């Protein structure tokens, strides 16, 4: 089964409404999918409320777990812990932080302030993680993302090397914005193998770590 904890809908800059996103994930044999639209102080409440409505409706009909989330995106780094807590208090089941990818002008220290928050669950496409941040990620049990998304994936190998050194938990997510961005488990395996994962690391990333994150939500 496939798990994806980072996707977008028309609520931010994605192409699909939640129902179509979830339906397409089901066809690709997803066990769970998180809707994590781009959020800041101006829209996080609306995003969470809309995604909760979608989840409550779809669970009556389809056998797939829809996870309510947000991706804190390009916000002032020092505001990340506060915003993550606000999102959780309002009903977000996971909080993703848009990390310091090398292909976007993400402010320096975004990774660091994400790493010190007890309410952040995933640091997405983090680029070059420094030692202090890695230690914080480990201490706060924050997952790091290996991504299939073009551009963001350039540093997958580096992220994996840091994850190995500091024993961080990895997830393979898509950061999907369009139908063609979603992937099945076979393609997810290629993403993991392509950045150098061993068979054990791949199994943990595709199966065991997602289940750990789901237990945290429940």
Structure explained in plain terms:
There is one protein chain. The chain is α/β, with parallel strands linked by helices and 218 residues long. The protein is 42% helix and 20% strand. α7 crosses α8. The radius of gyration is 16 Å and the shape is globular. The model has no long low-confidence stretch (mean pLDDT 98).
List keywords for this structure.
218 residues; alpha/beta; 7-stranded parallel β-sheet; 8 helices; 7 strands; globular
Summarize, please.
The protein contains 8 helices and 7 strands. With 218 residues, it is α/β, with parallel strands linked by helices. Strands 1-2-3-4-5-6-7 form a 7-stranded parallel sheet.
Annotate the secondary structure layout:
Elements: E1 2-4, H1 18-27, E2 30-39, H2 44-58, E3 65-72, H3 80-90, E4 94-100, H4 110-115, E5 122-127, H5 131-139, E6 143-147, H6 156-166, E7 170-173, H7 185-194, H8 199-217
Parallel strand pairs: 1-2, 2-3, 3-4, 4-5, 5-6, 6-7
Helix pairs in contact: 7-8
Overall strand count: 7
- Contiguous helical run count: 8
Detail the poorly predicted runs: none
Evaluate the radius of gyration.
Answer: 16 Å
What percent of residues adopt helix (DSSP H or I)?
40-55%
């Amino acid at each position: 089964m496939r798990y994806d904890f980072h996707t977008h809908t028309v609520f931010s800059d994605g192409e699909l409404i939640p129902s179509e996103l979830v339906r397409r994930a089901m066809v690709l044999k997803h066990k769970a999918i998180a809707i994590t639209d781009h959020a800041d102080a101006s829209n996080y409440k609306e995003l969470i409320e809309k995604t909760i409505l979608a989840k409550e409706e779809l669970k009556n009909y389809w056998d797939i777990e829809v996870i309510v989330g947000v991706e804190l995106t390009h916000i002032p780094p020092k505001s990340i812990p506060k915003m993550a807590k606000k999102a959780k208090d309002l009903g977000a089941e996971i909080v993703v932080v848009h990390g310091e990818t090398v292909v976007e002008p993400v402010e320096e220290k975004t990774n660091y302030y994400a790493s010190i928050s007890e309410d952040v669950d995933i640091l997405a496409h983090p680029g070059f993680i420094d030692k202090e941040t890695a230690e914080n990620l480990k201490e706060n049990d924050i997952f790091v993302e290996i991504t299939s998304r073009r551009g963001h994936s350039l540093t997958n190998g580096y992220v994996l090397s840091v994850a190995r050194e500091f024993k961080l938990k990895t997830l393979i997510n898509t950061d999907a914005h369009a139908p063609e961005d979603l992937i099945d488990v076979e393609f997810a395996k290629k993403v993991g193998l392509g950045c150098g994962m061993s068979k054990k690391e791949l199994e943990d990333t595709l199966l065991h770590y997602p289940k750990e994150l789901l237990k945290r939500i429940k």
